[in-house]
Each structure stands twice: as structure tokens, then as C-alpha cells.
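User: Need the bound-state model for glutamine:
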Amino acid sequence: MTIPSKLPNVGTTIFTVMSGLANQHGAINLSQGFPNFNPSERLQRLVFEHMQRGDNQYAPMPGVPLLRERIAEKMTRLYGQPLSPDTEITVTAGGTQAIFCAIAAFVGPGDEIILIEPCYDSYRPSVETVGGKVVAYPLSAPEYRIDWTAVGRLISPRTRMICINTPNNPTGTLLRESDMLALSNLLKNTDVLVLSDEVYEHLIFDGEPHASALRYPDLYARSLCIYSFGKTYHNTGWKTGYCIAPPELTREFRKVHQFNVFSGNHPMQAAFADFMADPSEYTGLPEFYQKKRDAFQQAMAGTRFRPVHCSGTYFQLYDYSAISNEPDLDFCKRLTIEFGVAAIPVSSFFSDRRDDKVIRFCFAKTEDLLEQAGERLRKV
Ligand code: GLN
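Assistant: Bound-state model below.
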């Protein structure tokens, strides 16, 4: 029997591979992006209370109503876009599921979707699963700057969607107002949709604002914006996020979402709704993670790794070309096995697997662990 594959070139995601290797060798795991500390005690208690109160069956398909109201309130306050909880907000089983549904709802066989690379490794397989064609626009290390005129040249009559991601995983760069206006301008008079992955919206440093697609009405009119509670409240394993899109786009998004997972998990949604009443739970995040970024950079100062500027996310790139010219995947594996620190090779975020000798470390860790990692990496 021949088993067909829709994804013949896809193996196991690099996040599973590197976390697996880290566990196998007892290495400090700075590869897959997740905190090594717990979410707030109060939030954990709220989940348990909702479980005891009976919120253990299916949540409503678009998400718990109070949670959608709280999201609308928050996002309107932060980004100025009036939002209807009923027709523009859908709670999902995490950012990755939201991204898949946004792509599956609009991209069909032969449709082109522009990916600005390096990008999160789920985008391409999601496009290919539904028969779409990726048109990649690779950025150059270490600046990873976007030339919007060059992006414009990639738009064809088959272009259905472009994916943007700010703050950017893995580069730590931000899109700024000028980028958003350039993109908005570029798409004027086209039917191209925007998938705006904003899961790291609160992880921005040095006092910079988040250039959400929600701030730009012309852009929002064609956008599906993706968010993640996991990044904001330190619980990536709770797999809860949401998608904000205008009513016409949300209608199509929900057609796929309802048959993909039906709904996200119920007690967590109910707890997030209560917890979101207090904005101080996320207003301190930029400072909280900036301290970790600085502590990690400090811990790495005596190593031969060269930092790439990081403006946001909880990822820090390092160039290792002064140490070795091994392929980045081999280097990451050796780092894990021989030196006890796991990282992610940035080639995994490129369609053509280009290797700029840059690797990604996650600094969402307690400062003692970051210091310990630095100590190990000073020996490399
Ligand atoms: N987004 C996280 C990262 O980039 C991990 C997501 C995952 O493991 N699928 O590390």
C-alpha cells in the first residue's frame, strides 16, 4: 500500500527535536520557547474554582462570552480599534491552531501566500496542507530588515495572503509604524489578506510601542490578528489564544475553527476572563522580560557568541561564526550534548534552510538558570 503524504518534506518540528535532545542529555533547555516558571497562583486557583463550579464541558464554539468581552475591552483600549465580542473575536486552542484555521479558511489549491522569513515553522506546513503555495521572502542576517518594494514585487494575481509577525520569532525585530503604513499602501486595491501574528505583543523592550494591525483601520479591514495567553500569562501548555478579525473574515474563520477543534478548553477560558479584569497582570511584562534579556546578555558577555539586537519576544539570537562553521543544526546538537545547553538553529525558520550561523536562545527563564547557561557557554 502506498501512503500519500501532503507534507513529504516535513519531519518532526525542531521544537520537539531540540526539547527531546535537551531532556535526553539533561541540558539546560533554551530551545523551545516556554517559561521555566509557573503562572500566577491566583490564576491557577481561578482555573480550579471554575472546574469545581462545573465549567468542565464544551465552551461555546467562539469562546466564553465574558472572555471575549474582556478581550474586546482590552484591545480597544490598547490599540484604538472598536471590536465586537460577538462577531470579531474567536478564542482558539492556542496561537498555532488559530494560524492554521486562518490559513485553511482562505487559502486553497494554487493560491499563493507570502511568508517573510525567517518565520515560525508552522506557517509553511499549514499552507501546504491546504494546497497553497508559499512564496518566500528571505531576510538577511543580522538586520532582518524588510524592503516593502521587494515584497510588492512578489504579489501576483494568485496572492491570497501575506503573513507578518511582530515582535518577530525568531529574530526579535519589530515592525514599526512605517512598516505597517507601507504594507497597508501596498495592499490597497488588492484582495490580499493579512495574517498578523502578534502573540508576543507584550514582550517589547526599550519603551517601544506595539505596531498592532489593529491600530491601522485600512489594514485591519483585511487582517486576521493572532494572540496567545500562553505568552502573556506564562502558560504555553494551556494552549489558549484568540483571533481578532472583521466580521466577514471571522465568519469564515469560524467555519473552519468549529470543525477543527470546535472550541478551546473551558475552565482556562473562564479563569482568563476573571484574571483579565486586572491589567496590571500584563502591563509589567515589558520590564519583566527586558530584565531577563539583559541578564542573559550579561551572562553571555564572556562567550565567543555575538548577539543580534533584540527588541522584542523572549528570544535572543547569537551568531556563532567566530566559534565554528558547522551547520547550525549540527552545532545546536553538539552544544546540547557536549556543553549542556540547547538552542534552536535559525535555518529551521527558512524554507531554503539557509544557514547564517545564527542560533536562537529562549530567555524566558529564571535568572539563575540564565546565569548557569552563560557559565556553560563560556566554555565553548
Ligand atoms: N512558539 C514556540 C517557539 O517558537 C514553540 C511552539 C512549539 O513548540 N510548537 O519556540
